[in-house]
Design goal:
globular, Rossmann fold, 256 residues, binds adenosine-5'-triphosphate, binds magnesium ion, six-stranded mixed β-sheet, four-stranded antiparallel β-sheet, 2 domains, alpha/beta
Amino acid sequence: MTAALEVKDLNRSFGALSVTRDVNLALERGARHALIGPNGAGKTTLINLITGALKPNSGSVLLNGEDITAIGQADRARRGLARTFQINQLFRGLTVLENLCMTIGERDGHCNNLWRSAGARRVVIDEALDHLQSLRLVDDALKLVRELPYGRQRLVEIAIALAQRPRVLLLDEPAAGVPSSESHLILDVVAALDPEIAVLIIEHDMDVVFRFAKEITVLVQGAVFTKGTPKEIQANADVRAVYLGEESGLGGTRHG
Ligand SMILES: Nc1ncnc2c1ncn2[C@@H]1O[C@H](COP(=O)(O)OP(=O)(O)OP(=O)(O)O)[C@@H](O)[C@H]1O
Ligand SMILES: [Mg+2]
């Protein structure tokens, strides 16, 4: 079966600093894959290479078997690759609904004439409201993003990623910076994602990782240190030593 996402022998350095070293990774359709590793291991850089925000020095990225290494971010998004950011990148001065409508308009390629036809506008707004409904964000539709608590902003970010109708979704610490009183809302949404979507999540909270992921890749100093099921990673003494620390007992929470 063709992998939904495949990363082959990827390398990237910044000057003398090698931050991605011969990384190989494959996600099948519907994968639930966690990428873990210490701060500065190169996790976000890897996502940036996958989305095209960064160009690799060598290696390739394949989406549903198609080599997308040479194409830009927008084209990758159109082919079904969506991401959320470690620090969110919403239009904070627009309403939640406007943010969603812009994404849908862009996806369908009628961004420029979206507001010319009442029919097109209705269809887009209805779809935007559906996405907001499924994430229980309808009550916030007409609020400016900047007025929302941070946890809800992060949910809007996920709504926007889902509005792109992705086949592969990359989540960079979706609950980072969110108080624990709200983070369960985000983790519930992540747990309930469409089983057809292949998901790669970066997450420091090991409880979340072990509950969500079926496969885990451990990245250390830019290279894949090991891969395995949650059980295998949990039992791996080397992972404990280099990343989690014996004293953490693998149950602890690290914040990036
Ligand atoms: N644009 C850049 N220029 C130079 N160095 C960079 C750049 N982006 C990242 N780095 C370096 O690359 C390394 C990997 O950074 P990256 O942000 O990918 O780590 P990370 O695993 O996501 O860490 P964290 O868990 O803290 O989010 C770090 O040493 C970082 O300083
Ligand atoms: Mg990061």
